[in-house]
Design brief:
alpha/beta, Rossmann fold, Helix Hairpins, Heat Shock Protein 90, five-stranded parallel β-sheet, five-stranded mixed β-sheet, rod-shaped
């Protein structure tokens, strides 16, 4: 392998005497070297250096135009510090001063003329061997540098990922803490109402109207408690992938009229108008879906719209597209800022410390909606302008028959 490497080396001969050049070329050919170039004009050396890229230079010192010392000085800035380019000086000038000067200016070795070809051959082999070792070391260093850079990038990315994970974990801990505080509030508040009014009902002097008032307040607290517990159960089932979707034919118009009827009284009590906006479709439009889960989604979004709207109109309905049904709920409420819009469907986002804590409720509604819509194979989004209102959209794929809608219970 070493022989093949040396025979393929590029060797450049620089000598103004053609007989010397012929002698060296003939010797190198006999030794098996196949890439040999020569010049008797020292002015051609720089061009040959660029085009031929020698692995070894055999250089005379005493030449017209440019001496060997001149060439050494010209080559010095062109040779990279990490590269070993052997230069064997062959000169009749055998003075100690000439040798020292040549070696100090970049020559690797020195032989005096007339030279012994056997010694020249051995010097050439030793110098090429040294160059091969330097090249191997350089290549290994380059590979090591590449690996170090790659590893450094990996470590930097790992550090960034760890920092992001740490920040995410800390944010999650904060949200969970606030979430648990919300749970405590949403359970204790109605429970206190129930227990308080229950104790008041024990007063024998209460009038019938007072008793009825207390009973109504207890019912309100009970409904709030039941809704809170139902939300916690639903979110647990959704995110544990343990909810069952029961697909069946549903008369969509009837379902929407039932939802409108449910929220009509609530809107009236708050001075709001609720409107059902429908496309020009037959009243008997039937779709394949889970009616109870669809009602849950609509109810949560409508409930939020009413909660955060103090005046104006709540409009809901749907639009038909070739492959999907797109439902919408539009309100004229307080709106949602852009940053929050990107987070409101995430788990535990109801546990933040924002102004929404001024309103009762677990705050899990949109997380539940997001989970159910995902089970349906649809998408949910919101367009909102603070102070103007919000419009929530969610889609359901149009299913032709029940065979396309298997249960999603896991």
């Amino acid at each position: 392998m070493k022989e093949i490497l040396f025979q393929n080396a590029n060797i450049l001969i620089v000598d103004d005497q053609q007989p010397n050049v012929d002698l060296l070329e003939g010797f190198l050919e006999m030794e098996g070297y196949i890439h040999v170039r020569s010049t008797t004009d020292s002015r051609n050396v720089l061009q040959l250096f660029e085009t031929f890229a020698p692995d070894l230079i055999l250089l005379d010192l005493a030449m017209p135009y440019l001496s060997g010392f001149d060439i050494l000085n010209q080559l010095k800035p062109l040779i990279d510090n990490s590269t070993f380019l052997p230069i064997l000086v062959l000169s009749a000038n055998i003075t100690t001063e000439a040798k020292q000067r040549a070696l100090s200016e970049g020559a690797s070795d020195f032989l005096s003329k007339p030279f012994d070809l056997t010694e020249v051959g051995l010097r050439i082999r030793n110098l090429l061997y040294s160059r091969s070792l330097h090249l191997q070391l350089k290549n290994q260093n380059q590979l090591l540098e590449i690996k170090v850079k790659e590893r450094t990038l990996e470590l930097e990315k790992l550090a960034v990922d760890l920092l992001a994970s740490k920040e995410k974990a800390e944010a999650s801990d904060r949200l969970k803490t606030s979430f648990l505080q919300t749970i405590s509030h949403e359970i204790r508040t109605p429970m206190n109402g129930i227990l308080g009014f229950a104790s008041l009902l024990a007063d024998a002097e209460l009038s019938n109207s007072e008793k009825q008032e207390y009973i109504d307040l207890m019912k309100t607290s009970t409904d709030r408690l039941v809704n809170t517990i139902t939300d916690y159960v639903n979110i647990s089932l959704i995110y544990s992938s343990n909810i069952e979707v029961k697909y069946q034919p549903v008369r969509l118009m009837h379902l929407l009229y039932d939802v409108e009827k449910k929220f009509h009284k609530i809107c009236a009590q708050k001075g709001l108008t609720i409107e059902l906006s429908l496309p020009e479709q037959p009243l008997e439009l039937t779709v394949i879906t889970d009616p109870e889960l669809l009602k849950i989604v609509l109810s949560h979004i409508l409930g939020n719209a009413i909660k955060f709207t103090n005046a104006g109109t709540i409009t809901f309905g749907f639009l038909m597209n070739p492959q999907i049904i797109e439902f919408f709920v539009k309100d004229t409420g307080i709106g949602i800022n852009e940053e929050t819009q990107n987070q409101i469907f995430e788990k535990f986002m109801q546990g933040d410390g924002s102004s929404t804590r001024n309103f009762e409720g677990s705050g899990l509604g949109l997380s539940i909606c997001h989970g159910i819509v995902n089970l349906f194979g649809g998408e949910i989004r919101v367009d909102s302008t603070p102070g103007v209102g919000s419009t929530f959209f969610f889609t359901l794929p149009i299913r032709a028959d029940l065979s396309e809608s298997p249960s999603l219970k896991n």
